[in-house]
Amino acid sequence: MRNLRQVRLPNLQRVNVFFGNNGSGKTSLLEAIHILGLARSFRGKASRTLVTHGAAELTVFGAVDVPGATLPLGVKRTVSGDVQIKVAGRVVSTVAELAGYLPLQTITADSFDLLAGAPLVRRQYLDWGVFHVEHRFIGEWRRFQRCLKQRNMLLRRGNIISSQEVSVWTRDLALAGNAISRHRKAYFDRLVPRFDAILTELAPDLGAVELVYRQGWDRHLSYEDALESTRQADVEQGYTHCGPQRADIKFTHGGYPAADTLSRGQQKLVVCSLKLAQGQLMGELGRGPCTYLIDDLPSELDGEHNRLICARLAAMDAQVFITCVDPQDIMAVWPATVPPDAAQGADARPQTTALAMFHVEHGSVVRCE
Fold it and tell me: What's the predicted TM-score (pTM) here?
């Protein structure tokens, strides 16, 4: 894919560092792992920009450890946009099934959109967490999307719509929408204390960054009543105005939007805290570790803040892939030992950290011994 031809990465470690000049292919490696977990790039580019120029397709193979076994995964994408996903040799039809085997967290330049981007980005962030800790969520989400699509199709028919038909889909939409909002709010309430604690650890002088969950309709109304109150506007404009599809998370600092008041470095610390909080919560709920893809960690942060983030990552039961230009930027801040997990008991000893170093140049990858 892109400027990578045939790359093999055997014997990966918990912490894997890819270093090299800009444009050498480091980010493409992270994209390949992202494709293996979600069948798409975190850059959101079309398939034709991912596939190496002159080739017809790209294929990513890998294996993940699951309880009691090693599970092969494979994803193929063609320049025309076709996608084929295989799990243990079996073709699967949904990205959701693939995502369940390889939970991924990304920290990239695009991650700043969590604070300054569109509400969709923040809904996706929230739904990632809910999906991985609440098995009922994906079914309710699909049900809601189906009801929303059908209701909007009816609304676009204007004066010829049947009031009874709209009422049926409105009822089902309300049921699914309420379920989604309950799942989101329960997850959000668990997430915020972890975020607060991690941000305080990473940036003790920053002060509080407040998070507020907005469900997508007037909080004083039930969803059924909110749909009824906007029904006339829905009919006139041909779409459903309120609901979980309008949900958002608001970030404020000192009473003002965090994206407007925080520096780029401070924003990166907030983003890192959000991503680390999700990984921590997953582990606490027994849903297993997630894999972190971190593109150019040293940028916009000084050595001390990089050290704090690396210490937090090292203490988590997570596999980490980091890119940088100079390997010393990571080697200098990654802890030499990791404190034992409290669950291991008082006699447990710190674990020695081993960094697997890979030099990336002109699309080739060489492991440094």
Answer: 0.91
